[in-house]
Design goal:
Shape of chain A: globular
CATH architecture of chain A: Alpha-Beta Barrel
CATH topology of chain A: TIM Barrel
CATH class of chain A: Alpha Beta
Oligomer: homodimer
Helix content of chain A: 40-55%
Radius of gyration of chain A: 19 Å
Order of helices and strands of chain A: EHHEHEHEHHEEEHEHEHEHHH
Chain lengths: 312, 312
Amino acid sequence: MFDNLPNEVTVFEVGPRDGLQNESKHIETADKVALIEAVARAGLKQIEVTSFVSPKWIPQLADGAQVVSALTLPADVSISALVPNLKGYEAAKASGLKQINLFLSASEAHSKKNINKSVAEAINTMKEVADAALQDGMRLRCYVSTVFACPYEGPVSISAVLKVVEGLVAIGVHEISLGDTIGAANPLQVKQVLDALRGLISFERLALHFHDTRGTALANVVAGIESGVTIFDSSLGGLGGCPYAPGASGNLATEDLVYMLHGMGIRTGIDLSSLVEAGALAQKLLGKELPGRYLRAELAARAKACAKVGAE
Amino acid sequence: MFDNLPNEVTVFEVGPRDGLQNESKHIETADKVALIEAVARAGLKQIEVTSFVSPKWIPQLADGAQVVSALTLPADVSISALVPNLKGYEAAKASGLKQINLFLSASEAHSKKNINKSVAEAINTMKEVADAALQDGMRLRCYVSTVFACPYEGPVSISAVLKVVEGLVAIGVHEISLGDTIGAANPLQVKQVLDALRGLISFERLALHFHDTRGTALANVVAGIESGVTIFDSSLGGLGGCPYAPGASGNLATEDLVYMLHGMGIRTGIDLSSLVEAGALAQKLLGKELPGRYLRAELAARAKACAKVGAE
């Protein structure tokens, strides 16, 4: 174990989109922009900033185009947005984005529930968007949900995952992010899925998207790294990822991921202290504590340090 | 990776002691007994039930002897208590316990702060207790704190850890639990420490005690398993472990550990559903939510299921 650790890992930040789309509190466009810029200041180079889904479904991100046009970011930061269909694609393109992120499910039941299409139908629809986007020179990422377990079907077969990945490779998607939508995966399963995918797709094009619902996210990251994956999705403070209830956890927190990677001598280009500042800003904007463990421990330690100084 | 996973792992439950000693709320002896019995009903075979530390320091566990004498447990459950010195040992022995758990630190600064002794002095004092206990046919476990990092010194050298383990082996301690007291360890470090210990002690006598302060506990367990350790400490619902502040996490939650192990096909003898019942009881007794992720997700999912039924 750990004989071939990568020197560097790419952290793909999903908080501004996956996080904020699940929040009921209204966040001003200017505040979203400030949050994204704070994330970029911490050194994140891949940020999903919004979605171009109908505001009927996700009113929280109805200001996607305004967010994109208001951002001032270092030139080496790549931003992208979630896009469900051609209409969304046109809006994303009009906003000036150079990367869009598509999504579908590995399990039939989740696909039906989420977008009312079978997996095969979802791939066909996606091909229309992908063809247009590739012609426009866009970079394409695709999230695959329910790779490790489905909330309706339970365990998902590896052959179902292989079929979806084959379909996405055929379409020409540049990067595929395999998602543990309900945070049920374990490290052995991660290894088994990745072993099955070897040869089907270059692992440089593969990302892993873990949820920390049951505390296993970083253990799964370790299995991913050992298997040769070097792109991991995470969310500032653990924002979003459809947690069941207040207090339950969804997305893997970016700070937890970066803390572990740096400890293992793996570079990310991210400054953990600045990341905590961004997390504190997110908590302020949302008016609540986020579930990320490093963030909580760090902010509690800082508060304690301040209280001590105050008492002396 | 994962070519030699163990068939079985021992989970050592520290919640009733490490958890309750950090709680300000008064818990009745009968409630402590009910909690320990609930933990045993879930299948835990190794439970640290209390401590025999001066009630001046830990008034929460002043009823240690009453707890031990009131317990009704299956014959294959081993209970033990934390013991700081000869006086505590005599009290533990008088209570009828067959195992005691000692403790010391790997770092000088933590040792001084915690028990006002150097590490060498701590080993000498421990030898007195150990000699008496071994003569009485007791089983001896020893916790080593600050193995991976010290809150006062920062990183702890592997040579300091080796020295302590050598001292404990010489004393005749049966089991040594290596603790990540402030939850700062990472999987690479875990592997490096264990590689250095190979040959010095049989790994069957080694346990790992991780804290989830920064979300890394299960990732560290994976590194421990890969390195050949098969005993892991954890705490019901993540109780205790000196978290910095409300909301921050201390001990690795037993449910999170068991969930991951079972998912990887590793037996524990524990029934996860009964464990959640015990966790719910702990929350009720303490009047607050515990930080364990599986517990939170599971209780939230159950509450949701109930609400649904209610609405129909």
